[in-house]
Amino acid sequence: MEGITEGVNNISFSSPESQKKNRIQVSNTKKSLFFYVNLSKRYMQQYNEVELCGLGMAISTVVSIAEILKNNGFAVEKKIRTLTVDMRDEPGARPIPKAKNLKLN
């Protein structure tokens, strides 16, 4: 639990204008599923809602986090939104559309 708290306390955002304070960018390679579940619980205590975001394959992780929170009574779905964003593997390459997003309250 102490490692999770350290990770949560050391989170920094690159630009306040470009990111909401209650948004969590989920990756399925960097942290465990339950790190994001616990982080979401803390954000919901602090901000009353949390926005979970993921790109591509991380969307299934976002859905798993949301289902765990819902099934344990910590959250209800407020909005589900899927967008596509164009990602490029390298400069000058063709853009590849990837899916994104979910919002809980």
TrEMBL record:
<feature type="domain" description="DNA/RNA-binding protein Alba-like">
    <location>
        <begin position="22"/>
        <end position="83"/>
    </location>
</feature>
<dbReference type="InterPro" id="IPR002775">
    <property type="entry name" value="DNA/RNA-bd_Alba-like"/>
</dbReference>
<dbReference type="Pfam" id="PF01918">
    <property type="entry name" value="Alba"/>
</dbReference>
<dbReference type="InterPro" id="IPR014560">
    <property type="entry name" value="UCP030333_Alba"/>
</dbReference>
<feature type="compositionally biased region" description="Polar residues">
    <location>
        <begin position="7"/>
        <end position="17"/>
    </location>
</feature>
<protein>
    <recommendedName>
        <fullName>DNA/RNA-binding protein Alba-like domain-containing protein</fullName>
    </recommendedName>
</protein>
<dbReference type="InterPro" id="IPR036882">
    <property type="entry name" value="Alba-like_dom_sf"/>
</dbReference>
<feature type="region of interest" description="Disordered">
    <location>
        <begin position="1"/>
        <end position="24"/>
    </location>
</feature>
